[in-house]
Structures are given as C-alpha cells and as structure tokens.
UniProtKB/TrEMBL annotation:
PROSITE patterns: CTLH, LISH. This is Glucose-induced degradation protein 8-like protein isoform X1. Residues 61-118 form the CTLH domain. It holds the Pfam family LisH. It comes from the Eukaryota. It comes from Iris pallida. InterPro entries: CRA_dom, CTLH/CRA, CTLH_C, LisH, Ubq-SigPath_Reg.
C-alpha cells in the first residue's frame, strides 16, 4: 500500500536553508580549488587578489600543465607529448593507457587532415603493437582506423572521434595524470559536491515532496509536485 509523502513548502524549505551557515572562506576555497584544478590561471590570480584566498600551490606552476592541455585541445599532440616528458617522463612511462590515447589522438589528427598514407603507417608502427598486447587498445584502434574506410569520415559510425569532444576528453586525461604526478587531486571538489547534492535530492524524493534544484546552472528552486 502506497504511503503519501510529506510535503515541504517553499517557505519552510527556504527558512531551513537560511538557517545553514557556511563560512565564506570555505566557499572561496572551493572556488580556488576549482580554478586551480581546471587550470584557469588568470582567473585564479584575479580571484586570489580580490578575495585574499591563497592557493596551496604556486599558481605559476599551473601554466606548464595548461600549455600541455591546450596543445592537445588544438590537435598538436606531438608537442603535448614532448612537454609532458619535459615535466616528468614517468607520467607516460607508467601510464600506458594515457600514452596510447595520446597516440590515438595523433592518428585521429592525421586522418582529420587527410594524411591517409601517413595515418596507415603510424597506426601500423605505433599503435598496432600496443593493440596486440591489450584487447581494449585493439578495439579502440579498430574504431579509429574505421574512419579511413569512409570517403567522408564524419559519416562513419565512429565519426564522433573527430569531434572536438574527443580532444577535450584526451586533454582532460592528460591534465588528470599531471595532477596525480604532482600529488594533487585530479578532480575539483565543486562538481563532486554538486553530484552529491543531486544524489541527496533523489534520496529525499523517496520520502518527501520538496522544492528541488533541477537546473544546476540557475540553482532555482522548483515547487514540489503534489
């Protein structure tokens, strides 16, 4: 037999929210953590000056990491690999998956620019041997090489590999690896807290009808459905 949910009105909910006290310093630290982890150096420097919130690392050291990330995002993967090795050769030596994904991105860029023969040679010499040692690498290589079978690679079932989102995915993986090598958290705290909030709302929704935040961009409360 279904039981009715407790209804929490907007007025009651907002009153409860106002009773919660969050220190401004803690909020500022969350913002700084996000800016530092994602590599927004200029914004972090400005935020530090305006809020007085100090970063726990030298903000100048972020620039090298961001140079690598931007190189991948612009498709200059070879330069990114060289810069990663300049930062710390062990990053790629100890992370075969990251190295494979960077090489895969190099192959994608060759295909993007119509360098078919060069792409085939690169795939055979650089990626095929790694695919023979790892089934998941082989599957990813096969998906990438499939782009060559289509006159218009964008019409390939795996055409999403040519999307900017693929570059961003690889760039994020490199960024995370560099952070880990520096004994830093690879993910900012703020998105994790937002995911936790969504989870908490889902749990509460089983027991009560309350004003939810469904749009994380506006953070607007929506009246409970009753």
């Amino acid at each position: 037999m279904a039981t009715s949910k407790k209804v929490i009105t907007r007025e009651e909910w907002e009153r409860k929210l106002k009773e919660v006290r969050i220190r401004k310093d803690d909020m500022n630290k969350l913002v700084m953590n996000f800016l530092v982890t994602e590599g927004y150096v200029d914004a972090a420097l400005k935020f530090q000056a305006e809020s007085g919130t100090e970063s726990d690392i030298d903000l100048e050291t972020i620039k090298d990491r961001m140079t690598v990330k931007k190189a991948v995002q612009s498709g200059n993967v070879e330069d990114a690999i060289e810069r990663v090795n300049d930062l710390n050769p062990e990053i790629l030596d100890t992370n075969p998956q990251l190295y494979f994904h960077l090489q895969q991105q190099r192959l994608i860029e060759l295909i993007r620019h119509g360098k078919i023969e060069e792409a085939l040679v690169f795939a055979q010499e650089e990626l095929a041997p790694r695919g023979e040692e790892n089934q998941s690498f082989l599957e990813e290589l096969e998906r990438t090489v499939a782009l060559l079978a289509f006159e218009d690679a964008n019409n390939c079932p795996f055409g999403e590999l040519l999307d900017v989102s693929q570059r961003l995915k690889t760039a994020s993986e490199v960024n995370a690896a560099i952070l880990i090598s520096q004994s830093r958290e690879k993910d900012p705290k703020l998105p994790s807290l937002l995911k936790m909030m969504v989870w908490a709302q889902d749990q509460l929704d089983e027991k009560a009808a309350f004003p939810r935040i469904n749009n994380l961009t506006t953070a607007a409360l929506e009246d409970p459905a009753v």
